TrEMBL record:
Homodimer. One of its GO terms (molecular function) is 4 iron, 4 sulfur cluster binding. Binds and transfers iron-sulfur (Fe-S) clusters to target apoproteins. Can hydrolyze ATP. PANTHER family: IRON-SULFUR PROTEIN NUBPL. Belongs to the Mrp/NBP35 ATP-binding proteins family. Keywords: ATP-binding, Hydrolase, Iron, Iron-sulfur, Metal-binding, Nucleotide-binding. Residues 99-111 have a biased composition (Low complexity). Transmembrane segments: none annotated. This is Iron-sulfur cluster carrier protein. The keyword Iron applies.
Length: 396
């Protein structure tokens, strides 16, 4: 077996050594001091070109050429180049167009996860066997859709991995699996010894139904199929040893939550809510469901807590002030922290680069980091509790 080619900054510089700026042909790209936020992760590379002083249109051909050249480097599996059109607080990232979906994808008959791998059959086991080396399982949930549950799960997962934990992220949002896209994961899932192998990105392992079926199928699943898909995700994935498995659940209190809580021991749930009344109302329903299943509520995260003006840092409480914090206090649950409403969280997710990896010094990344630091001792406590509990038989 050949070992993967090692990619480093020197490799990148070599590849770009003959590039000049289209708007200043005598200036070499490497001398122009416009390359920033270079992130090399294994065989993946992301970087930004700061083009504050030139129009976007003039810079796009350079961006495309640089990205193309990086993709040619031996061993690179993914290269993405972004443009940054501003300076300081006015930064605005411009993202490369994503690859167009296959023209006939919509006409393809949806495949089940088993069909997607029919040449390498998957042998189902029970969830307990598949998850036996997972030390702690935490669900990330919300009552309402679109409040930022997946963004929170992803950024917490990467932050926890940055602190040295072995982290897995299972995207159980079978209706709208956004984790692969938000982590920049593409390509086919590997099957080894009849088990699905999680993909890796930004230091975490991830598995999602979105990696196994065409996107259009996710929207049309109903009851029993959903339960089957969740059970398959629980039984057929080879996570290996994990300190923590975060499970990104769909919004609400439906079949997925029911199947999860009935099939495996979830050690705790983190509830994500915006400060808004209607989101909090739904969050309360989500909390009630976990309580009914005897899953401890570990705390509430307030997402989109405020908008911080990039020019003057003034905070605007778009969805109300401290709603989730007050709710946590009223209900007697820990308040885990607040995440501001920041365009970079959205734009990073759109190109598969979580904000904690893209800009670790940003206020949003620091907010996720603080929450993950709070979680570490909780995870340790839950790990001990889980180890001391005798596994119960799982209803199949
Ligand atoms: N703090 C934030 N600041 C800016 N954008 C955010 C923030 N949190 C989430 N978003 C964006 O809001 C959208 C919804 O977020 P996300 O998909 O994480 O929510 P969700 O609750 O998981 O949604 P769904 O119910 O569809 O599963 C995404 O485009 C995401 O990038």
């Amino acid at each position: 077996m050949t070992s993967p080619v090692s990619i480093n900054q020197q490799t990148i510089h070599q590849a770009l050594s003959d590039f000049t700026l289209p708007w200043s042909p005598n200036t070499r790209l490497l001398d122009a001091n416009i390359i920033e936020n270079m992130i090399i992760e294994g065989q993946k590379i992301h970087l930004t070109l700061n083009i504050a002083k030139v129009p976007e249109d003039a810079a796009e051909p350079l961006r495309a050429k640089v990205e193309h050249r990086l993709q040619q480097i031996e061993g690179i599996v993914q290269a993405r180049v972004f443009l940054n059109t501003g300076e300081g607080n006015n930064k605005r990232l411009v993202f490369p167009p994503r690859q167009a979906a296959s023209a006939n994808a919509a006409q393809q008959k949806p495949a089940t996860p088993h069909q997607a791998h029919k040449h390498a059959p998957i042998k189902p086991t029970g969830p307990i066997e598949a998850l036996q080396d997972v030390k702690c399982i935490i669900a990330v949930a919300s009552g309402k859709g679109g409040v930022g549950k997946s963004s929170t799960a992803i950024n917490l997962a990467v932050s926890l991995a940055n602190q040295g934990l072995k982290v897995g992220l299972m995207d159980a949002d079978v209706y709208g699996p956004s984790v692969p896209h938000m982590l920049g994961l593409e390509g086919q899932v590997e099957v080894i010894n009849h088990k699905l192998i999680p993909m890796t990105a930004w230091g975490i392992s991830a598995m999602s139904i979105g990696m196994l079926v065409p996107p259009e199928q996710a929207l049309i699943w109903r009851g029993p199929m959903v339960m089957g898909a969740i059970k398959q995700l629980l039984s057929d994935v080879k996570w290996g040893e994990l300190d923590i498995l975060l499970v990104d659940t769909p919004p609400g209190t439906g079949d997925v939550q029911l199947t999860l809580t009935q099939s495996i021991q979830i050690d705790g749930a983190i509830i994500v809510s915006t400060p808004q009344d209607v989101a909090l109302l739904d969050a309360r329903r989500g909390i009630a469901m976990f309580q009914k299943a005897k899953t401890p509520i570990l705390g509430i995260v307030e997402n989109m807590a405020y908008f911080s003006c990039p020019c003057c840092n003034e905070k605007t409480y778009i969805f109300g002030e401290n709603g989730a914090k007050k709710e946590a206090n009223n209900l007697g649950f820990p308040f885990l922290g607040e995440i501001p409403l920041i365009p970079a969280i959205r734009s990073g997710a759109d190109v598969g680069v979580p904000i904690v990896a893209q800009d670790p010094d940003s206020i949003a990344a620091k907010a996720y980091q603080e929450i993950s630091e709070l979680m570490v001792p909780v995870i340790k406590r839950l790990t001990v509790q889980r180890a001391n509990k005798k596994p119960e038989a799982t209803p199949e």
